[in-house]
Amino acid sequence: MKKIALSLVSLAALAGLAFGAHAADYPQKDKVITIVVPFAAGGPTDRVARDLSEALRKPLGGATIVVDNASGAGGSIGANKVARAAPDGYTLLLHHVGMATMPTLVRNIPFKVESDFEYLGMVNDVPMTLIGKPSLPASNFRELTTWIHQNKGKINLGNAGVGSASHLCGLLFQSAVKTDMVPVPYKGTGPAMTDLIGGQIDLMCDQSTNTTSQIEAKKVKAFAVTTAKRLTIPALKDLPTLQEVGLKDFQVTIWHGLYAPKGTPADVQKKINDALKIALKDPEFIKRQESLGAVVVSDKRMEPAEHKKFVLSEIAKWSPIIKAAGVYAD
């Protein structure tokens, strides 16, 4: 019995050494690191992921990094894919505020946000913009609110799907202006933006990373931003904040964070976090994000523990809002 017990201990020790050696060699040259994005290609989160993958390559020793779009069910399909992946650092998740809304929004969610992931650090904060179709008969927010109240129950409010950033912002906006609108969910921001430009829907509230170029090209009408202060980038600097035009305490910032499956070795987590901190200081990455209105994280939320603390506080913030709206992503 003692011999068997000793043998098992020895095998466990050898397995640990083997895994430790693997972790020390991370990332291996012949292995691809996949960043899973739980939304469609071409959308705002996808853009952040592709910019980040470029910035991470050098600090991760020239590793090959690819983006895998696995959309659906309020972002939970892609998140579950990562939660169930091998905890070796080669499958990561880039997710936005959906990490905080899924526990309430998605019925029978197959994982626990709080305990099935390793938190690797925050990436950015992205403001939202309230935009309308080009033919909308309003040129400023005051005229927009008049038009909204004149057309109660007739206004089509587009979003990128239940649980998306645009959906959440839209819920808050309807509540703030005390007017119900007709929600029009799409499979991603791309098709929603196409229909907004074409006039098939009336309004949308979406991330500046997706709307700035359309606003700049005057393909849509822009009415306000959701930040506490006005933005400084040229295309958005003249837009008022929603608080400024009378919607008290209306502030929505969509953030992005990086995650790994639970059980990823601590030293692999540290390597990724160290690389992330370098990537977040990359001038080209910062330039790309700032050109779209996003602010790259430079505070303590870069640290895994603070990242997790922040997400838990966001769960507490969004849960009552979603429950009050009575919406769910199946």
UniProtKB/TrEMBL annotation:
Q: Does the keyword Signal apply?
A: yes
Which residues constitute the signal peptide according to the record? 1-23
Q: Which UniProt keywords apply?
A: Signal
Q: What family is this protein classified in?
A: Belongs to the UPF0065 (bug) family.
Instruction: Please give the Pfam families that the UniProt record associates with this protein.
Output: TctC
Q: Which InterPro entries match?
A: BUG, Bug_dom1
Q: Does the keyword Membrane apply?
A: no
Q: Give the top-rank taxon of the lineage listed in the UniProt record for this protein.
A: Bacteria
- The protein's name in its UniProt record: Tripartite tricarboxylate transporter substrate-binding protein
